[in-house]
Design a protein that fits this description.
Layout: H1 3-26, H2 31-54, H3 62-102, H4 108-138, E1 142-149, E2 161-165, H5 176-188, E3 193-197, H6 205-208, E4 224-227, H7 230-234, H8 237-246, E5 250-251, E6 255-261, E7 264-270, H9 287-291, E8 299-303, H10 310-315, E9 320-323, H11 338-341, E10 347-351, E11 354-358, E12 376-383, E13 392-395
Parallel strand pairs: 1-12, 2-3, 3-4, 4-5, 7-8, 8-9, 9-11
Antiparallel strand pairs: 1-13, 2-12, 6-7, 10-11
Length: about 400
Amino acid sequence: MRPQSIVFFAVLALLLAYTGYKASLLWPRHRILAWGAAIFFVAFTVGWWLLYRSNPGALDSGWFRALAWAGSLSMGLWATFIFLSAATDVLRLAAWGVQRAGRNRVDAARRSFLSRWLPTGVVLSSAGIAGLGFAEAVRGPLVREFVVPIPNLPRALQGLKIAQISDLHVGPTIQRGYVDEVVRHTNALDPDLIVVTGDIADGSPAVIGEFLQPFARLKARLGTYYVTGNHEYYWGVEEWLESVRGLGLIALLNENRILAVDDARILLAGVTDSAGGNFFASHRSDAAQARRSTEDCQLRILLAHRPDNWFEAESLGFDLQLSGHTHGGQFFPWSVFMPLAYKYYRGLNRHGRMWIFVSSGTGYWGPAHRFAIPSEIALLRLTADATESSSDRVRSRS
């Protein structure tokens, strides 16, 4: 068994034990029943995804699609419960420490509240948050517009509009209808350039490739460009590269294209995902190679699935980096962890002389859950006016 699999199942066992313990607090007189319910819930929550990983063709079955929706919803509920429950346990431990230090005894009524009613409140709160997050997820992406001031931007490039799609994760619960809406909204923005920054799907092209057919209708006068995300490597990156090229997307694998707009030139570079080198040596991410050009360009843009190469990108002279991967945390309360993992994890940020925009994702992965962090299609409008606000404006979904 691979080390990653050992870690996965070890963490899963710990989470199961914690869930079972919490269930026993809710039903102290029926502990065996509580543990049985916890085991069944966790097995159902994780099992549907393991079944899909081992047999992607199951997606053709109506029963599996129903199972996937139910499993995705339960996954969102479980993830929310784990966080809220752990947070309350930390608070309880802190309160216990304060009481011990003051040698104060906890009365029976308070013990009853902490041991039973507080966990009940956590379960109900988790269900409410997961339900609202599910409703937000199935509504589809918002359009968020950003103004990006770039000094000395040539007149020909002022007002240039770039639409970004990222982390769509087409698969068990995101299918053709969702992709149709993404394409419709993106084309309605009338962008000059469209970029797709990885994690386009979860599955093999042979099974879910048809769901992405609407991508062939994406329209932008300067073209539609694509870089790999980590998930393409899990499902066969060579097949996915062939598939996206067949849809008219131009893949940038540590390379660039020079785009001419009147008398101005744009260097549009793209790197493979940083995990790519673990699968193919030729896919090792190389921003310096992607930047290499003898052309005199007035604007340099880097497409990179993950936002963690900002330092190198800025040192190479890029003006703008477009990334994804983080999903902005995907949903609250898990989103509060993102600043611990990434310096720039959501929205438009400034690093030195370079702007870095990190998409919150156009779809979702795992749980259909987007509480407080809606999925998005980003539209970035470039300007030379440094006085213009770099904050975003949200359009409706209609």
